[in-house]
Hints:
Elements: H1 3-14, H2 20-27, H3 31-44, E1 63-71, H4 77-84, E2 90-95, E3 102-108, H5 111-122, E4 127-134
Amino acid sequence: MDPLDERIVRALAEDARRAYADIGAEVGLSAPAVKRRVDRLRARGAITGFTVRIDPAVMGRGTEGLIELYCRSRTAPADIRRALARYPEVASASTVTGEADAVVQVFASDMRHFERVLERIAGEDFVERTKSVLVLSPLLRRHAPDLPA
Length: 149
């Protein structure tokens, strides 16, 4: 990506509904030129889609927790993903380095709901044990990595 592409991506990361003409005025291009660059970025896979950011608390999911999964040996990441995909409360899941095999981000309606989800996940065949923490206050959330200025 060249610096102009980075500025366009940064503008879209701030607000994906922003008009190409508005972005163009900011970066010094016409709206059609911005659209061509966005189309190229999408074709190359640099931009994978456009989405809506939702506040989980407003949607009735104000309790957030992180669950570390410790899995039985030879558990494939695809098996973990397939199992966790069944839980609508799971916002994200990643394999990680360190002692845990994966970390799972869960949004629940309240503490009891989180506990039920934790118990169900801990009961999956491949899970040996879990370790969880509750989020008190999110300090920083970025929805796209910061690009060089």
